[in-house]
Amino acid sequence: MNRDFNVWLSSFRDSIADYGYYIDFAKVYRNVDGIKVELNILNSLIGSKNIKEDFKSLIKRYPEVLKCIPLLLAVRAKEIYCQDENGGYLYHFDFEKYPPNSQAHYERYSYFMEHTGLFDLLENHIINNLVDYATGIETGLDSNGRKNRGGHLMEDLLESFIKKAGFIKDESYFKEMKIKDIEKKFHLDLSAISNKGKTVKRFDFVIKTEHAVYGIETNFYASSGSKLNETARSYKQISQEAQKINNFTFVWFTDGKGWLDARNNLEETFDAMEHLYNINDMENGIIKEVFK
Length: 292
Fold this sequence. Notes:
The protein folds into two domains: about 120 residues, no CATH class; about 150 residues, Trna Endonuclease, Chain: A, domain 1, CATH 3.40.1350. Helix content is about 45%, strand content about 15%. It has 15 helices and seven strands. Strands 3-4-5-6-7 form a five-stranded mixed β-sheet. The chain has a two-stranded antiparallel ribbon with strand order 1-2. A hairpin with a 6-residue loop joins β1 and β2. The radius of gyration is 26 Å and the shape is elongated.
């Protein structure tokens, strides 16, 4: 099948984002609900006139409130390291292990609150409610997950077309299979792809038909970057290596206007790779045409 690269590229999409792509509010609310009681306890410090002593008294009585503190700094980790500007000492703060009944520990966590600016945030009434504040932070942190959600959107889209073509999950198509599992299940030798077993490789999808096994990768790039050139070169190499393997074919589905800036490498791969398709190809029935 002769195809014109420029025509093919011109059909690439700006976005495949759905309404749930931007923020996963269910996750945001779930995360905040998990610490809502502790946040409300910390609310008692808002506007405190003696915040250091009030804080130390609070964590002595309710040490579990410490687990909320990393989130107030928009940090997911429960362990935080801080370089002390006065002595160059690297302090380790563990917000999951509550400090023992020790004045030194209370002072240490109070020092953390003061020097990270959290005391100022609370003491000077910059905020009115830590539950609302935490919800805002969770919303911001969740926006970082868009990249992963974007990848899953392309996978979900491709899977919907695979199902429409009549393939059945875990019977005729499989998700996220490692090369070693493909070899074992379908009695294939994929050492040409795995560098004789030295490289760990996993395909997004694997389709099994009566005549062949297909390893499939899929991705969507809404924006450009150096990774795109690397991906194009890598998949070109996998395609060439797969040609040496009987009854196995490598197929790549990709899309997104991010490829416009990396078009040269993509075109090189397009010219060398028989089975490279986009969303428009999916919509025009390429799944049924290829996987026979």
